[in-house]
Amino acid sequence: MCLGIPVKIVEKRGSVGIAEYKGVRREIGLDLLDQVQPGDWVLLHAGFAIQKIDQEEAQKTLKLFEELESIGEEQ
Amino acid sequence: MEKSSNPQPKFDQASQSQALLNGIERIAGQYGQEMVLMEVCGTHTVSIFKAGIRSLLPKNVKLISGPGCPVCVTPNEYLDRAIAVSRLEDVIITTFGDMMRVPGTSSSLEREKTRGADVRVVYSSRDAFKIASRNPDKRVVFLGVGFETTAPTVASALKEARQENLANFSVLSAHKLVPPALELLARSPDLNVDGFICPGHVSTIIGLEPYQVLAQEHKIPCVIAGFEPMDVLQAIWLLLKQIKQGTHLVQNQYVRAVRPEGNPKAQTLIHEVFDVIDTRWRGIGVIPQSGLGIGKQYQEFDAERLIRVEVEASREPEGCLCGEVILGRIQPPACALFGGQCTPESPVGPCMVSSEGTCSAYFKYGQN
């Protein structure tokens, strides 16, 4: 039930945003985040953006694989 | 442009999953003894079963499901109250879809709806709020069920209701907090969990700190994980590495969405609207300071206080072992009802009703 979907904010009207997911647009609440701007990706849960998703941080997940591979070689 | 592309990592599924599985195999082989990991969150359970991860793991690495399905841990007394409220003429019940089919002691919300009760499935507390605005002659009650991820969304709707003077909107709160339940599990002498796969989206709100007690005091490594199968495999690998090395740290695999401090704005909102209270979990009993009740400041929106109804004496379904399943003490097939009397089409207990319930995942995807 704690499902979260990454969506892109395409428009902002005060504390309400318009988010796009796979071509579908819907209104979402932005009250739980500061400084959300159109173009940002957020995690959508139960009608609200609960956190911004960070592209650079996403890449760090992949960096862990490099660590895995190097450790794998050592052992 | 960076910002316009979906920020999910682009996993190279075949080679990276093989590298991870090799890594997992290697550590498990070197360690030799059994390692039991609990995936706490129901969304992880579904992801694990869908991807068949259990069947890919070495024999000495066991995954068990934990208490992270909100519908499953909501006790019958809450459902029975919601059902009693739904029978009132002037009430509209608004709820997430998962709650509809959960059997209470003698009825369900779905059954009440077929008998004429006004029960509406909503996607968000914002939708419930709008229904209240459009129906000023009705009392609109939202069933507040969920963990730390959901609680701030409900808090936000209540704050808006106050701003708009929406007097016909209220919430029946059964919100629960994950860390107190994990601590209870960690203290339990009959459950030996060597590592927790911690819930990613709960952690977007609460951050890393609440898990420190599990790592430092109970010496159980914790890894917060995302929901792609590759995220889960990576979390398993990180946990096995910790177990083998004898470390017990809180690690964050889901860095793209979980900040160390969580979401402070959402945390503030939770504490503005709710009080932390003792609450009952199905199959577990009352866990101190593990729930969120509507606080005094917002008591005019507290459905439990506002709407007095007679609630039948609640019983848990006979023969149902959901409580044992929730605690990871047994696997679903050990329940005599599983797959016979209790199926997703005709569920006896909530673990078979909820799409995130362990029994439902076992039934749909086999013992993967």
Helix tally of chain B equals 17
Q: Oligomeric state of the chains?
A: heterodimer
Determine and state the CATH class of the domain at 74-177 and 262-306 in chain B: Alpha Beta
Secondary-structure-derived class of chain A: alpha+beta
Report strand % of chain B.
Answer: 15-25%
Radius of gyration of chain B: 21 Å
Helical percent range of chain A?
Answer: 25-40%
Mean pLDDT of chain A: 83
Radius of gyration of chain A: 16 Å
Number of strands of chain B: 12
Helix and strand element order of chain A:
EEEEEH
| Class from secondary-structure proportions of chain B | alpha/beta
**Helix percentage range of chain B:** 25-40%
CATH class of chain A: Mainly Beta
CATH architecture term of chain A: Roll
Query: Helix and strand succession of chain B?
Result: HEHHEHHEHEHEHEEHEHHEHEHEEHHHH
The CATH topology label of chain A is SH3 type barrels
CATH superfamily of the domain at 74-177 and 262-306 in chain B: HypD, alpha/beta domain 2
- CATH architectural label of the domain at 74-177 and 262-306 in chain B: 3-Layer(aba) Sandwich
Largest sheet entry of chain B? 5 strands, parallel
Straight-line distance between termini of chain B: 40 Å
